[in-house]
Amino acid sequence: MNVRYTLASKAFALLMLTAMVACGGSSEPSHTPTPTPSPSPNTFAGAKFSTVVPVGWTDKTGDQSAISSISAGGQVLMLLLATASPSLNEHIDVSLASQPVPQDQLAGYLQSVSHNGATNLSQPQSFSLDGDTGIFITYNLMSTGGTMLKDEDMVVNHGGDTYDIVLNTAQADFNLQLPALQMVLAKWKWKS
Length: 192
Description:
By secondary structure, the chain is an alpha+beta fold. It has a single domain, classed as Mog1/PsbP, alpha/beta/alpha sandwich (Protein Transport Mog1p, Chain A), CATH 3.40.1000. About 25% of the residues lie in helices and about 35% in strands. It contains four helices and ten strands, in the order αβββαββαββββαβ. A hairpin with an 8-residue loop joins strand 4 and strand 5. The chain is globular. The N terminus is likely disordered.
């Protein structure tokens, strides 16, 4: 056996091991964790506007049974349900008022919900929606199932129509669901 060859092989192996350790190398393959992509919202493209369906919400606009169950006034243009909620109490709906409401009468239109049992009505406040100014209020309403609800009801005029946008949710879930409504409003774009 050639002693020089064996010593040279051992010296080379030791030199390579030292070089790997000095460079931070390892004889084991490295495992870099793959980042998990966060889900992104889906797009809602209606005839009059587009926006997003927030993550955790489902578009039920085509479900006539669901639309009938929410008792929205006028023509429903969009209905989003909170996926985690088994009831229709957790939804965002957009409807057209059966008749346009003059700008100076929007506050009275909103406050008329008190005739339907709404309580704790807030003062009307203005908001902007893709360049148009509307008014919103919040209020409480007892559901037919006995759950205390909290709603944010918004109306805005655009193109000769009055749009009514409502976040309807259990009072206890309002702060949890409000960011979904804010996302819908932030991504709202009127169609020409």
